[in-house]
Amino acid sequence: MPDNCSKVCENTNTTESTTCDISDSGFVSLFKVTKMDCPSEERMIRMAIENIPSVKALDFDIPNRDLKVYHEGEIENIKEKLMSLNFGTTLVSTQDIDNHSLSAAMDSADVENSKQSKVLIWLLGINATMFVIEFIVGIIAQSTGLIADSLDMFADAAVYGLAFYAVGRSDQLKLKAAHLSGWFQILLALGALSEVVRRFIFGSEPVSSLMMAMGLVALVANVACLALISGKKESGAHMKASWIFSANDVIANTGIIIAGALVAYTGSPYPDLLIGLIIAVLVLNGARRILNIKS
């Protein structure tokens, strides 16, 4: 780091940055990402910046909303890409590190990414399969809750699949693929919301037994995801966060089962409509975040 710049460049303003005359040595920049609360955001961040030539390694701490970027040269291009995601990103600090530390960070990231990729492929397969099955059963059961929950499965699978597709491809192709995924999610979520409105107005008779049975199958699938992740959850913040995210999906599946039980007990479709509305809104919010990715 040049003499006219301090060892650590502090920045706590979201709109302004401290400009430092950065040399060719390695650097680690710490970002606070306030809206990064699950692996979906991590995958979108990776799509946005990991192919920038100056980026050498990424270290995510999702529970604490922290991201460390190991890089060479200026941080401004990386910062602009991150802020375009609208995840509440703030550059906290940038400090220089020696070449040995940079190489070690890169090697560690490569090993960890290889391990995680194997698990993520399984997660992608499970979520994609469950989307198809749960969507079809949701239509048969006249359950907006199952249809919306299947869209949540699709949202997870789309983000993971998109991340694998994007590896080694141009920024333009990545952006097109991301936006296509986002628009598709919006169409599906709007379809689910229209079903909620239609069935609220004209009435519906959700099949509670199918709701509970399919909810149980989805629960088993997400427990399987937890089992896949559990052996790796201490190997890095990303996998620990993935474990927390799958645990949240288990809670959502439990909500489907409870809604099915309430439909059976009360004879009312409203528990199904309510949970369908909640999940569809969550999917819409996820699609909005994907569409906020800029070139």
Task: Give a written overview of the molecule.
The protein is of the alpha+beta class and 295 residues long. 65% of the residues lie in helices and 12% in strands. It has eight helices and five strands, in the order E-E-H-E-E-H-E-H-H-H-H-H-H. It has helices at residues 39-49, 76-83, 99-140, 144-166, 171-202, 208-230, 237-266, 270-291, and strands spanning 8-10, 26-33, 55-61, 66-72, 89-97. Strands 1-5-2-4-3 form a five-stranded antiparallel sheet, sandwiched between helices. Helix 3 (99-140) runs antiparallel to helix 4 (144-166).
Keywords:
single chain, 295 residues, alpha+beta, five-stranded antiparallel sheet, 8 helices, 65% helix, elongated, disordered N terminus
- Between the first and last Cα atoms, what is the distance in angstroms? 30 Å
**Strand numbers in spatial order across the main sheet:** 1-5-2-4-3
User: Helicity range of the residues?
Assistant: 55-70%
Q: What's the gyration radius in Å?
A: 21 Å
Overall structural class, as computed from helix and strand content, comes to alpha+beta
Give the ordered list of helices and strands: EEHEEHEHHHHHH
Number of helices: 8
Low-confidence stretches: 1-24, 235-239
The proportion of strand residues reads 5-15%
Total number of strands = 5
